[in-house]
Amino acid sequence: MSTLTEKIREAAQKVLAEGLAEVVLGYTQGSLPYRNRVTAVNTPEETSRLIWPSFGVLNPANVLHKLKGKKVALISPGCVSRAVVVLCQEGQVKRDEVYLLGVPCPGMLDPSKVRDLGKKILRVEDDFKEKVLVVTSEGEKIVAREELLRQNCLECRHPTPPVYDELLEGEARKPSPSPYQKVEEIEAREVSARWQWFQEAVVSRCIRCYACRNACPLCYCPTCFVDDSRPQWVGKTRDPVDTALYHLVRAYHLAGRCVDCGSCEAACPMDIPLRLLTKKLEKEALSAFSFESGLDPEAPLLLTTFREEDPEDFMITQELKALGKI
Amino acid sequence: MYYILKREDLRPWLEAINREYTLFVPRTRDGFGPYEGELYLEGKTRLSAKEFFLPWREPLLVYEARPGALPKVVEGPAEQRVVFGVRPCDARGVILIEKVFSPDPFWQKRREATSLIGLVCEEPGTECFCWAMGVNPFSGEGLDLVLVPHEEVYLVKVITEAGKKLLSLSRAAEGGEEAFLSREKEFKAKFPVSPALEKLREKDLMTIYEAPFWEELALPCLNCGACTFLCPTCYCFDVQDEVVGSEGVRVRLPEACMFELYSRHASGHNPRRSPMARFRNRFMHKFKYFLDEYGEPLCVGCGRCNEECPANINLWDVVRAMSEV
Amino acid sequence: MVAAPKKDMIPLPAKIEKVVVETDDGLLKSFYLRLLDEEAQREFKHTPGQFAMLSVAGKGECPIGIASAPSEELIMFTVFRTGLVTDALHRLPEGAIIGLRGPLGNGYPLEKFRGKNVVLIAGGFAVTTLRATLVYLLEHREDYGEITMIYGARNPGLLLYKEELAAWRKREDMKLYLTIDREAPGWDGLVGFVPQITEQVAPSGENAVALVCGPPIMIKFTLPVLEKCGFGPEQVYLSLENRMRCGIGLCHHCNVGPFLVCRDGPVITLAALKRLPPEY
């Protein structure tokens, strides 16, 4: 058992016993060696179910809406804490209704990277530092953690939660020095090649199951634009135009909000690289406005703020037209 | 009738079929597509062969979008299609859906126009449990031919006349019955049938429905459509009118009972408003409503839901809870 | 007697011969339809309580109870303007062509009711299929015992089929109790909710059946009254509605537990309903 798991159980017991929260949201063992599951724990006895996961790929903040009216403690690595912060900023959650049990995050492993290591994966042992032992039907493999990490963890700028009520002891991954490498690879392509990538990698493979939307802790509209029937903005089949519209609007709804928890991509049953769309918007927010989401519950939101010095190079102006830029 | 097909004779056979029919094969782990050389045989595909019968988009009617215009009925695909590499669980799914869809003309047309060549798995996948759902992958149910990979050959069992005709395009030679039957026997011995189904048959419907476990099991569920869209037996559909310019089409498309919209009335009232109610409805349909009505569960044990569920909901956690309540 | 419904999803073209605005608020209109195909029109035979899918090209389809009786020349639907399709339907003029699929569902077992007293209890616009039933019963008057109808609306302007109501009121061979929720100028009839009026009328459950159609809240409070009057759950008939896509038992949207409203209903006895999950 990892010591982080012990610390989490201990902290969860304390939180429940002292009445700091009624429920603790965290992770438990999944049904496969490379899966973990979000779980809610209501009593100190049940805390033995909680673990620090290798594969905590869904953001438990997404379950908060099912526990309305209860004070909830969340096992919070950086991205969970940041999602809650955005929910607070947007008035969806009150800061004093949640208790953030911060965890300095060593990064999570990517289930599909582990799954592909053998025909049958029998056991996974993670030291949460350097190495992972994967026992497959063909034998044992020891793999460097770095090779098995989720892409969003490799690109994470805030492994340690920026906001918490209590921070567990532990060693977080170092913030990524090059979070936008993958985005830049796509950016470097010609417009037509970028469009082709979008069509092939995203649009043509999407089955419109909305797992990405439903997994997102920040997708909470009571009626999503794809579900509206009067007017019906988007068709419901796998028609490429409709599917493209869904993905573009989904990504844009997360501009200046997404905390890159990677739930969308992890949830996708077709393994579509959805994060690249939101990551691109994150990069824009950072470069244009020096803005990162989910760092301060009191801070204003990016899209509700205007400053004189904000760049406006995206606006269609006479000046730009005269310069021949548009 | 049993035959033996050498592994190296598979490609030439597929080429031969492709010359006479439209041939579909598993192309990548994603799913099936027209045969163009790519072939994925390492395991079952993410998307099942269900889409050949309940396609992602089935036009029913076309009409001119002006008042008084009379709709024209769309003729389904008539060309003969052959699908190679269908896993026996997927074929069994077709048989289960047919219990409901047999009167549907669009279904009938697709069934008549499609031959299925089955391929038994080299070994069961991590999450497979066809045996527990009463599926014998060697039976050839729903298939025209069934192939069993065995050492350097495929053992082939002919199920239908259409299958025999297809096999005649290959270099397969008669024989292999003994090996086929012993593989089948080995397989059966490995996997006993689960007692859960018997228990579910006897249980009172409302006792399961009202049981307290649903809330806890449904908590992590995202209520997305991943399980239903990947499932080879989920058959619910939506109907949409699509109008582009002056052209209108009424289409049928897969729908997930997990979606809030699925049961919402025009008035806004929703009899299954809570995420838990929708979660429960899916499992009740598969393992109680359908079981009671047709004598079999609406599940073939392919394990796609367990493998791909974003929230790691495990079917057996639910089935066990249902059968033990 | 009833022709087997067409088991496919292809609507037949039907012409709107007449449109009647039924209520003061204009939200309910009756559409009188004739199938373009003469043979199909001749062969269209339904049982009161059945429904049909009406479709407006470009908008979609929705299930609506058939408000006309089998003997009537035109097929009539009284439609509440509430969703995408009904909204489009309301905008259509007389002479327009729409699509019709049906009759669908089971209808009331009227043969089984022969020799019995029949009590029809309706609230709001759910009266439609009970109108069809009443017309049928009156045409076969000698086959049935006492016929009683209790029908309530929020105000007099929301009562449907006003001319027919006036005619039924005058008949000696049936009793009609009309009620509105609150006093209104010019209204000299009963005032009160349907359950209260049912309690006052106190129909006897002996050798009788009750057919109840109305909003959930009305049904909830009417059922205990009927029980007090001696109606067993096998004697009370309700009509369910749920979101529906196909109407022929395929798409599964309308399931109430194992019960498919389109295939096994919409008409159901209270006894059968009590055995189902409350998903309606």
Please outline what is shown here.
The complex is a heterotrimer of chains A (326), B (325) and C (280). Chain B is α+β, with helices and mostly antiparallel strands and 325 residues long.
Account of the protein in words:
The complex is a heterotrimer of chains A (326), B (325) and C (280). Chain A has 326 residues and is of the alpha/beta class. Chain A is built from 12 helices and 8 strands. Helices cover 32% and strands 13% of the residues of chain A. In chain A, the strands form 2 sheets. Chain A has a 5-stranded mixed sheet with strand order 2-1-3-4-8, sandwiched between helices. The termini of chain A are far apart. The mean pLDDT of chain A is 93. Chain B is built from 12 helices and 12 strands. Chain B has helices at 10-20, 88-101, 105-112, 161-167, 177-190, 196-202, 205-209, 213-218, 226-230, 275-294, 304-308, 315-324, and strands at 2-6, 22-26, 32-34, 58-64, 72-73, 81-86, 114-119, 145-150, 153-158, 173-174, 237-244, 247-254. In chain B, a hairpin with a 2-residue loop joins strand 8 and strand 9. The model of chain B has no long low-confidence stretch (mean pLDDT 94). Chain C is α/β, with parallel strands linked by helices and 280 residues long. Chain C has 2 domains: 12-104, Elongation Factor Tu (Ef-tu), domain 3 (Beta Barrel); 117-239, Nucleotide-binding domain of ferredoxin-NADP reductase (FNR) module (Rossmann fold, 3-Layer(aba) Sandwich), CATH 3.40.50.80. In chain C, the strands form 3 sheets. A 7-stranded mixed sheet of chain C has the order 10-9-8-7-11-12-15, with helices on both faces. The two termini of chain C are 30 Å apart. The relative contact order of chain C is 0.14. Chains B and C meet through strand 4, helix 7, strand 11, strand 12 and helix 10 of B and strand 4 and strand 13 of C. Chain A: InterPro entries: 4Fe4S_Fe-S-bd, 4Fe4S_Fe_S_CS, Helical_ferredxn. Chain A: Residues 249-279 form the 4Fe-4S ferredoxin-type domain. Chain A: This is 4Fe-4S ferredoxin. Chain A: It comes from Thermodesulfatator atlanticus. Chain A: GO terms for molecular function: iron-sulfur cluster binding; metal ion binding.
How are the SSEs placed, and which strands pair?
The complex is a heterotrimer of chains A (326), B (325) and C (280).
Chain A: H1 3-17, E1 23-29, E2 36-41, E3 72-76, H2 78-89, E4 98-102, H3 111-115, E5 121-126, E6 131-136, E7 139-144, H4 145-148, H5 151-154, E8 166-167, H6 181-187, H7 191-203, H8 211-215, H9 240-252, H10 263-267, H11 275-289, H12 318-322
Parallel strand pairs in A: 1-3, 3-4, 4-8
Antiparallel strand pairs in A: 1-2, 5-6, 6-7
Helix pairs in contact in A: 7-9
Chain B: E1 2-6, H1 10-20, E2 22-26, E3 32-34, E4 58-64, E5 72-73, E6 81-86, H2 88-101, H3 105-112, E7 114-119, E8 145-150, E9 153-158, H4 161-167, E10 173-174, H5 177-190, H6 196-202, H7 205-209, H8 213-218, H9 226-230, E11 237-244, E12 247-254, H10 275-294, H11 304-308, H12 315-324
Parallel strand pairs in B: 2-6, 6-7, 7-8
Antiparallel strand pairs in B: 1-9, 1-10, 2-3, 4-5, 4-12, 8-9, 11-12
Chain C: E1 12-21, E2 28-35, H1 38-43, E3 51-56, E4 60-65, E5 75-80, H2 84-90, E6 97-104, E7 117-123, H3 128-139, E8 147-153, H4 162-170, E9 175-180, E10 190-191, H5 194-201, E11 208-213, H6 216-228, E12 236-239, E13 255-256, E14 259-260, H7 261-264, E15 267-269, H8 270-274
Parallel strand pairs in C: 7-8, 7-11, 8-9, 9-10, 11-12
Antiparallel strand pairs in C: 1-2, 1-6, 2-5, 3-4, 3-6, 12-15, 13-14
